Amino acid sequence: MKQTRVMSLLLMLVMVMAFFAACGEETTTAATTEGTTTEASGTSGTEGTESEKPQLNENGEYDVELPLVDEMVTITMWGRSPDSTSGMNNASESVARQEMEKRTNVHIEWTHATTGQESVQFNLMMASQTYTDAIIAQATYYIGGFDKYIDDGTIIDLVPYTDYMQNYMMRRQAVAEEGGTRCIGYMNTTYATNSCVSITTAMDESLIPVFCQYQDYLYTDEGATLSN
Predict the structure, then answer these.
(1) How many Å apart are CA 170 and CA 173, to the nearest integer?
(2) Are the C-beta atoms of residues 141 and 121 closer than 8 Å to each other?
(3) Are residue 80 and residue 45 in the same domain, yes or no?
(4) How many CA atoms lie within 13 A of 104 on its CB side?
(5) Which of 100, 134, 137, 167 is the most exposed place for a label (fewest CB within 10 A)?
(6) Strands 195-199 and 73-80
(7) Quick one: 29 and 114 in the same domain?
(8) What is the pLDDT of residues 154-206, one digit of tens each?
(9) In the structure, what pLDDT confidence band is assigned to residue 109 with cuts at 50, 70 and 90?
(10) Are residues 135 and 179 in the same domain?
(11) Where are the alpha helices (DSSP H) in the chain?
């Protein structure tokens, strides 16, 4: 009789252990399934971020939302004088520039070098350390090379701001100019031998993206047509 009772107790003990083992396995499986679901959700979130990247419009360009700022801002610019055949003494007299101002809410205040004295007056400005916000100059004006002025903290490296110039960068790559950009060149040239637009450390940092977008608008079909 005692042996029968002992055997019954052992059988019950085995059944209880088997029950708890099964529960533990179910819990582990549920945790694993939950973890997998969470990971998949994270992947889905990443895909959502990718889809939010700017898309090309029907014209094959990136949209530039106008006006660029709610209230008019002024950016000072140095460059060569208008061609004598233009009939203008200052680039601000250009009807196209005036229209650009209306559309973008960006006013460009021009300072022009005397014709034939551009390089001399450029270097006098650099030596005085009194710069305009932006400069249109030939690479040959930069004594010691353009990159020296970035290293010296006079000119701002625009590589971190290329996201604000997507139309420019797209066209720049289309003419096989590789890498980033340290100034805004022209599509049929490179800044190594010709003029480009650079930004100096005189510019308010908050205006750098605005000015980059202003220049980028010129690389849309609408902006290019306006500026010609």
Answers:
(1) 5
(2) no
(3) no
(4) 27
(5) 100
(6) unpaired
(7) no
(8) 999 998 999 999 999 888 877 655 555 788 886 544 444 467 899 999 999 99
(9) very high
(10) yes
(11) 2-51, 95-104, 118-128, 146-151, 166-174, 208-217, 221-227
